[in-house]
Amino acid sequence: MKIIQGKGVSGGIAFGRIRLYRRADISVNQLRIDDPDEELRRFDAAKQQALQQLDRLYERALTEVGEENAQIFDVHRMLLDDPDYNDSVEGTIRSLFVNAEYAVSVASDDFSEMFAAMEDEYMRERSADVRDVSRRIMRCLLDLSEDADDDSCGGSVICADDLSPSETVQLGRETVLAFCTAQGSANSHTAILARTMNIPAVTGIGEEFFYLKGGEEVIVDGASGTLYIDPDLRTKKEMLRKRAAEMKRRESLMTLRGMDNVTKDGRRVNVLANVAGLQDVSAAIDNDCGGIGLFRSEFMYLESSDYPTEEYQFRIYKRVLESMKGKRVIIRTLDIAADKQTELFGSDRRDNPALGFRAIRVCLNRPDIFRTQLRALMRASVYGSLGIMFPMIISVEEIRETKALLAQVREELKAEGIPYRDDVEIGIMIETPAAVMISDLLAKEVDFFSIGSNDLTQYTLAADRLNPEFDSHSYVHHKALLRMIKMTADNAHKEGAWVGICGELGGDTTLTGLFIAMGVDEFSVSPSQILPLRERILGLDMSGGEKVLATTLNG
Ligand code: PEP
Ligand code: MG
Predict the structure, then answer these.
(1) Burial group, residue 114, by CB count within 10 angstroms (0-12, 13-18, 19+)
(2) 3-state helix, strand, coil in the chain (%, to 5)
(3) Does a structural domain hold residue 240?
(4) What is the CATH number of the domain that holds 81?
(5) Do 188 and 327 belong to one domain?
(6) 3-state class of 141 per DSSP?
(7) How far is Cα 280 from Cα 283, in angstroms, rounded to an integer?
(8) Mind spelling out the 3-state secondary structure of 366-387?
(9) What HEC string does 232-263 produce?
(10) Global pTM?
(11) 175 in the same domain as 279
């Protein structure tokens, strides 16, 4: 048995086998060839190899995850045999005298773009499949091993050097048992996603990652951050016991469902759920959320190879609102870029993308994309109690411009006879020191503030949230940050706005009393953190809270 120690960023214990995820960096050069027939033979051989891989994957998926999920490999087989696709590859090789890899990459671009432009949603989704299948042939041509997306049949502990948020969501969240990365911090979106999905996760296993071969039996303890490779019998028994104890604790937390979030001395607050998409909503309901306090809408864009349409977004928002049965749902508009990069908006390759063109800046620069989202949101508003929240606001002008766009959208819908609700709450995220410093002015413009402590921490302390060195309490509990939260809450209340925390600090139960003493009205946390937070609130007595607050902020 070998023990690897990293940092636990999402609790839970997983038993499984290691699946290595290495980004298949396929670079294809255009080479001039003399013999097109020879090149076509190479292409055919690679295609046969790819077909065999797909057959194997189909069979495995059939037994492990059922026919419906296995069908994707069938679709890939069909694409491989598509006569137009094959003619295109052959045509490029024969007419340009170029290598097969290059011809496949050209066909991949042409066909995926063609599918992406189609009206029909099903056909549009095939765009990503064309790219996948082309990558598979290119890997065969280049003699590269299959990569991790082959593990969509899952049941594995994914180990990677690092994982971007878009890779994490695309890894088949239903079947991944745990994530382990060589790098990564507690507040990266990958760690946040793991907590949201309630999947054990360990970061910072460092260079141990490079000694993993893949296929090893492993137990992951996401709370302590430990990996047991080829565990012995004693460890297995111990971990089974620990898992049983965790399940018992979970059951006892479940008895808190249906209770109010109220302190011993009668202070009541709301506890809602952070979700990355529709798929997390059932976990939010199971954990008795008071609504959705943060719907990270950008994951819809990260999961897709095309801009999500108005209709697609409308259906998602409608379903979330309906499933919350009148409880508040706050949807954050597209917060793209920084560590959430997608080719859709062109990757930001500057040195400091977190200080670059992201979130509301992108939206105001791309009103076409922004309007689509605003229209979908307003149309969905009639199905529940919607709040719309704008990320990364730094000025009154930004919020006014945004509200003007929203007013135009409302006018448009009215003219088209499409119903929407007039009482949709409008809020902004407070996640920059600039927003805190002018929170008195911003509060006049909105119904609520939601404090994004993850970004607020990095921008206040000049401490990259992706850097694990800054996960310690001296950073995340920094007095400057706590004072900013107090200032924001005071300024919100002066103007009659309410204030919540939706950053990870909201789930830190060592600070709950302090936040309530500051006047925070609402907490929004990962679904699995809702009941531990309720337990904490129920045990709090706030008499004396003011004194603790004064000592903490000034002492
Ligand atoms: C935050 O910054 O605290 C926040 C909630 O937004 P995100 O983590 O998605 O950047
Ligand atoms: Mg943020």
Answers:
(1) middle
(2) 55, 15, 30
(3) no
(4) 1.10.274.10
(5) no
(6) helix
(7) 5
(8) CHHHHHHHHHHHHHHHHHCEEE
(9) CHHHHHHHHHHHHHHHHHHHHHHCCCCCCCEC
(10) 0.76
(11) no
Nearest CA to ligand 1 atom 4: 452
For residues 21-30, average pLDDT:
70
Q: What's the average model confidence in pLDDT over 41-51? A: 93
Supply the pLDDT for residue 402.
97
Choose the residue to mutate in 196, 429, 526 for probing ligand 1, maximizing ligand atoms within 8 Å of C-beta: 429
Separation between Cα atoms, residue 178 and residue 163, nearest integer Å:
13
Ramachandran category for residue 10: left, alpha or beta (phi over 0 → left; psi -120 to 50 → alpha): beta
φ, ψ of residue 384 in degrees (nearest 5)? 170, -155
- Give residues whose Cβ lies within 5 Å of ion ligand 2: 431, 452, 455
Q: Enter the tokens of residue 176.
A: 């991944």
Whether 466 contacts 352, CB under 8 Å: no
- Residues β-bridged to residue 390: 428
Domain interval for residue 497? 263-554
pLDDT at 23: 63
Specify whether 119 is located in the same domain as 166. Answer: no
Residue 88 neighbours by CB under 8 Å, 6+ apart? 103, 106, 107, 110, 111
Indicate whether 159 and 48 sit together in one domain: no
Asked about 189 being catalytic, the answer comes back as yes
Cα–Cα dist 99/29, whole Å: 8
- Ligand 1 centroid from CA 452, angstroms: 5
pLDDT greater than 90 at residue 399: yes
Token reading at 288: 């008795």
